Amino acid sequence: MTDPAQAASLIEETVRQLGRIDVLVNNAGITLDRTMKKMSIQDWDSVIQTDLSSCFYTIRAALRYFSEQKSGSIINISSFVGQMGNFGQANYAAAKAVLATSFVRL
User: Fold this and answer.
1) What digits encode the pLDDT tens for the residues 26-66?
2) Which pTM value belongs to this model?
3) Is residue 69 situated within a structural domain?
4) For residue 90, what are the domain limits?
5) 76-104 residue pLDDT tens
6) Rounded CA gap, 99 and 26, in Å?
7) For the chain, what is the domain count?
């Protein structure tokens, strides 16, 4: 889900096989727990790409179809960690906090 082209392909293939898309559920998530002192840039980027950017990629691809259909629902799975934080999970908490506080309007 971290590749925008693959995310778009997933949505396009869904529409090709089923004729439309009515619901998009973004549930991808990983954790790479480290204190900020020990967290590498790669650790940060991997979690942000999987837990946050992948949602953008799939939503962006699905919006075209939702607009044409004049309907569609998006469910972004977040976590209480996005609201409360958790030791060693700054990257995960940041990604899930954005999902917990964002929404899309057509």
Assistant:
1) 999 999 999 999 999 999 999 999 999 999 999 999 999 99
2) 0.89
3) yes
4) 4-100
5) 999 888 888 889 999 999 999 998 887 66
6) 10
7) 1
CA 40/CA 86 separation, integer angstroms: 18
Rounded to whole angstroms, how far apart are CA atoms 89 and 24? 26
Domain assignment present for residue 106? The answer is no
User: Which CATH number goes with the domain that contains 57?
Assistant: 3.40.50.720
For residue 88, being part of any structural domain is answered with yes
State the Rg of the chain over Cα: 15
Residue 37 lies in a domain: yes
87, 73 in Cβ contact below 8 A?
no
Catalytic residues: 92
Q: Is residue 1 classed as helix, strand or coil in its secondary structure?
A: coil
pLDDT at 89: 95
